[in-house]
C-alpha cells in the first residue's frame, strides 16, 4: 500500500528528528559539564564533575549506537534532562553566572519582574 509506506516514512522521519534532538541535548549537557569548574559541582551539592562527565558521555555514546537500545536511550535522556534542569542552574547559582539579562550577578532583593525597583525615586 502506498499510504502505509508514506505513513511509515513520515514516522521514521519524525523518529530521526527526535533522535537527533535528543543527541544534541545530550551533547549540549556533556559540553556544558566539561566546561564547568570541578569545585562548583561540590559547592552546589550535585555529585562530582567526573560522575556527570561519565554519565553524560555514556548517554551520548548510547545514542550514537545504531543498535537502538531504547531503554538505555531513555536513561541517557533522563540523565541529560536532570543535568540541564537541576544541576546546571545550581552550578550557575554557585558560580554567579545566573544568566539574568547579562548582568552576571543574579537577582537583587529589590528587583521586580522588569528590572530594579527604586520606589519612584
From TrEMBL:
UniProt keyword annotation of Nucleotide-binding present: no
Keywords: Membrane, Transmembrane, Transmembrane helix
Segments of this protein annotated with the region Disordered: 96-121
Keyword Phosphoprotein belongs to the record: no
Chain segments annotated as transmembrane: 12-31, 52-85
InterPro entries reported for this sequence: DUF2516
Gly residues: compositionally biased ranges: 96-107
One Pfam family named in its UniProt record: DUF2516
Protein name: Membrane protein
Stretches of the chain forming a coiled coil according to its record: none
